[in-house]
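Cont'd.
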Amino acid sequence: MNERTGSEGTRLSSGKRTKMSVPRATATARLNNDWSVAKGARPQNPGVWRTATLTDNRRATNCAGASFHHHRPPRPRGTPPRPGSPRPLPARPALLPAGNMALCEAASSLYWPRVLLFGDSITQFSFQQGGWGASLADKLVRKCDVLNRGFSGYNTRWAKIILPRLIKKGTGLDSPVAVTIFFGANDSALKDENPKQHVPLDEYVANLKSMVCYLKSVDVPEHRIVLISPPPLCEAAWERECLAQGCKLNRRNLVVGEYAGACLQVARDCGTDVLDLWTLMQKDGQDFSSFLSDGLHLSPDGNEFLFSHLWPLIEKKVSSLPLLLPYWRDVAEAKPELSLLGDGDH
Amino acid sequence: MNERTGSEGTRLSSGKRTKMSVPRATATARLNNDWSVAKGARPQNPGVWRTATLTDNRRATNCAGASFHHHRPPRPRGTPPRPGSPRPLPARPALLPAGNMALCEAASSLYWPRVLLFGDSITQFSFQQGGWGASLADKLVRKCDVLNRGFSGYNTRWAKIILPRLIKKGTGLDSPVAVTIFFGANDSALKDENPKQHVPLDEYVANLKSMVCYLKSVDVPEHRIVLISPPPLCEAAWERECLAQGCKLNRRNLVVGEYAGACLQVARDCGTDVLDLWTLMQKDGQDFSSFLSDGLHLSPDGNEFLFSHLWPLIEKKVSSLPLLLPYWRDVAEAKPELSLLGDGDH
C-alpha cells in the first residue's frame, strides 16, 4: 500500500472539492484559487523547526514536503517565544516511560493562540450556519482559537466598559494575535427613535479610539487590530421589521454611512487595519440587499462577503503561526511520543 | 416608541424564523420545538443573581422576564465560585471615574467557561459549513467557548500522549465544563492495509480509559465527559476514495462497529455519557450513506444528525451557566457601568 494515500486524512491534502468543503471554500477561492488552504499541509518534522505560513501551506499541498522544512533559526536571548510556542519544555529523558502520568509529567503545555471577535449582534451571530466567525475558526484550525465576544444590542459606550473584563494584560505570549472591533450598527440608531442604543458620532469616535488605546496598553498593538464598520442598512427591509414590532424606522442608511466613515478615520488615525463594510457592500452602486437578512443583520451571502474581505487582513496577522502538533503522517510510528511531546517549540 | 421593540437585538428574542437562523435551528427544532433557544433570553438584571439555564432561556423567550430573576442564593464560605463566575470583584467605588483606565482597574476579569472537542478529523472539520462544532459554538454563545482540538489522522495511541499538553490541572474554575472524546475512525483501520493508524481493539479500550482517567485527575469528572463512537463506514464510497489514491479499501464497517461497541462499553465502565453514532446512524436499517461525504467523514446531514444527538448531552452539562454580561435591554442607561462591571458574580 502506498503509505501516503488512501487513509483518513488524505482527503485533507488531496485538494479535492468534496461535498462538505465546497461551500466554505467558495468564500476564499476568489482570493487564492486553492481548495485546500490550511488543510492537510505538512507541518514540521519532529526535531526540525519550521516557521509555517499559510503561503507555505498552499505550496505544501501541491509539492513534496521536504522543501518546507527549514532548520530552526536561533532566537536571540531575551526575545519572547514565537506565537504559538508552548511554555518551554523541561529537560526530558531520552526514553519516556509508557505510563500516562509519566507522559503527563514530561509533556509541556501547548499554548493555543487566540483571535478575538469583539462586536455586537453581527459578531454574536457569526457562528450561525455560514457565519464569518465559524469560517475564520475553520480556516485557522490547528493554528489558533477564534473566540466569539459578540454582544447583541451593545454599542461602543458599553463595549468600552466591558473590554477590560475580556482582555487583561498578560504575559505577552497569551495576548490575542488578532482582535476585530465591529461596532456601529447600534451606535448609529436614530437618537429620537432609539435613545437607549444611540451614541453620538463624536462619542463613537472617542470610544473606538479609547478601545484601541486600551488594547495597546495590554500588549495588543495596533497592527493586530482590525476595525470593521457597520454594513449598509436596507431601510425598506428594516422598516418592515420595525413596523412589525409596532414602531417607526429607527435607523437610516446615510447616518450609518457617517459612522462607517468615522470608523475608517479612526483606523487611519490609530494605524489599525480597517474593513469599511458599508462602502464595500455598496461599491459601484451594487444592490446590497442580498447581503442582509432583515435589512440590518448579515445573510449567508453577507457573511461570505465579510469573510472574503476579512480573511486577507487576518491572514497577515497569523501567517507566522505554525500548525499545532505534527501532521499525522509525520508522527514517528515506533515512538510517537518523540513526535508528539515536542522539541521545545512544538 | 415601544422601547422593547424594533431595535437591533429584537430579532433575537422575537422567535421568528429568519433566513439566517433557519438552517441551524432545523438541527435542534426536533428536540425542543423552539426556534429561538439561547438567543435573546433575558439574563439577570444588574444586581440580581440569576442562575440562568437553557430551559429558563426557552421560557424567557415566550414569557415576561420578571419571573426568571431570582434573588442570589447565599454561597457557603469556602465553596468555589459557580462556573462562569468572574474572579471576585474588588471593592468598587460607588461612583466610577469616566476614564478608561479607571474603568479597567475597577473591572474584574470575566471568566469564559470552555467546552473542549477532542478527536480526529471529524472533530477537526467540525467548524466547516454546517459543522457540529460550529453549531455547538453558536448554541453556547455568551455562555462558553467551544474549542476545536481535532487532529486529523490521529488515533487514541497518539491522542493519549497529547491530551496532557491540551488540558492541565488548573484551579478548578478553569477546567472545561464538558469534553467530547471522539476517536475510533482511525484506530479501526485494517492493520494490514493501514498499519500506521491502526490500533488494536484492546489498546483502543485501554487508551480511552486512560484518557478518561487522566481527565478525572485534572478535575474533569466523568459526568462532564461524552465519548463519541466512530460513525458507520460506507464501504462503497470509501473504496472509491482509496482506489482513486491507488490503494485498496483500508477499513470495514463491521470492524468499525466493534470499536463503536468497545467505546460504548468503556463509557459504561467509566460512568461517562456516550453517543454511539455507529448504531444510531444505522438504526432500523436506515440508509446512512447520506450522513457521510466520502464514506468516512460527515456530510452536512451527518453533522446535523450528530449535533441533534449531542446537544441534549451537552445541554445537561452547561445548564447552570449564566449568560455572560447583561442582556442589552437590562443595561442601565444612565450609568451603564453599574450593569456592566458586575455585582461580584456577573
